[in-house]
Amino acid sequence: MKKAIIMLLALSAVYSCKENQKEEQAVKEEEQTIAPVTNDVLESSVIYEANIRQYSPEGTFDAFTKDIPQLKELGVKVIWLMPIHPISMKNRKATGELSVEDIQDEEERKKYLGSYYAISDYTDVNPEFGNFKDFEELVETAHQNGMYVILDWVANHTGWDHKWITQNPEYYTQNEKGEVIDPLNPDTGESWGWTDVADLNYENKDLWKAMSEDMKFWVEKYNIDGFRADVAGEVPTEFWEQVASEIREDKQIFMLAESEDKDLFKNAFDMGYNWEGHHIMNEMAQGKKSALDWDAYMQKIDSTYDQDDYLMNFVTNHDENSWNGTIKERLGEASETMMALTYTIPGMPLIYSGQEYDMEKRLRFFEKDTIPKTKGEVWPLLVKLGKLKNENKALHGAKNAASYQEIGTSNEKEILAFKREKEDAELVYIANISDKATNFGIQLEGTFENYMTGETLVISEDKNMDLEPWQYLILINK
């Protein structure tokens, strides 16, 4: 009898434990305001790069969070936050070749806030931006508005104030004297000039574990949805594969690599950077390359990458804006044409903070600056393009992307023309890639809607078309 009572108590305890687990899981699911990220969502996504420091005069999480609901108007489904962590003071970059230590005037020194990419603690937030509660509210607001949040992760190096410098110097690359060094260019063996950071050494497998734990911290505690990996190719692919696999055991995440290396896409990353395509856009706008060069590039992409690989398309980002110039500086009169191109080719289009507000200045990188916040010509353009990207299957651009097919014309050097198709959806992009008006024939037949104007357009092979300098058409089937 005594044994039977003990057995009943044990069974009751097991049942109670299981019921508690069920209740906890139910609460967890109820708290989850957005389903885990899937490829179906990514097919039609626009990604937004948020520069928290420069997004507002305050430069805070809260100031950005207030604007998250209106990002839906732009079709944004993924928010990429530039590094949110504390920035090292030691060797902090100021201006040119100077660090803050080189500046004697105390007031002058205060204005140099350093590089976001010189991180002193991977598991803390930059007090300039706010606190953990503010960050949590940002993520929750994004989720409530149907957007995913990914963190910019700097795994290649740390700032010189990071605790590992003193506690785990074996995590770092050292010279023959045993001194920790800044990152070196593997081709020349010389410094990249990133003197505000210390190079991590991935030959040490204890570093892998420490870095993995810091990444998991943000997924497990703050429910973020993935990472953008800074200079991803400088960190072993095997590390990215291992940490991505471990995290995905508990939650599906989105991984973006700052790289075009196709090997990174096999098991670690979902999307890479379309650097080469970006540079070709710049050169087409500057008259250095033609539509033929773009066609050759797309053929190269088709033969180089696997069918389910895809890239992020952009006319600007934080590096391009601060170091190489504004959109207008680089693209001039071709700005809108190239912006529309980033939405219509396979992949995912990027909006960088300020782009939506017609920003025509280079944001300071190591100091406080502020983007404009007046809606001009670009906001309604991005609203229209974002809606098309979100809703038209012919612009699906992730692992099950719509097809891409060149359309022949009588002027292949100056006219860029292609067709995208998926299921019953069809879209055509035609652009004059020159600063001269052009008359041309095209191998296309049909009645289309000019998406940007709503007008009906009948096209036939036996009738030539005219386009003004840098004019483009986005045509959808009627």
Summarize it.
The chain contains 16 helices and 20 strands. The chain has 478 residues and is α/β, with parallel strands linked by helices. Strand 13 (403-406) and strand 14 form a beta hairpin.
Explain this structure:
- The protein has 478 residues and is α/β, with parallel strands linked by helices.
- It folds into two domains: 29-402, TIM Barrel (Alpha-Beta Barrel); 415-477, Golgi alpha-mannosidase II (Immunoglobulin-like).
- The chain is 33% helix and 19% strand.
- The chain is built from 16 helices and 20 strands.
- The chain has an eight-stranded parallel beta sheet. A six-stranded antiparallel beta sheet has the order 13-14-15-20-17-18. A two-stranded antiparallel ribbon has the order 3-4.
- Helix 15 (335-344) runs parallel beside helix 16 (378-391).
- The chain is globular, with a radius of gyration of 25 Å.
- The N and C termini lie far apart (80 Å).
- The model is unreliable at 22-30 (pLDDT under 50).
Descriptive tags:
single chain; 478 residues; alpha/beta; TIM Barrel; Immunoglobulin-like; 2 domains; eight-stranded parallel beta sheet; six-stranded antiparallel beta sheet; 33% helix
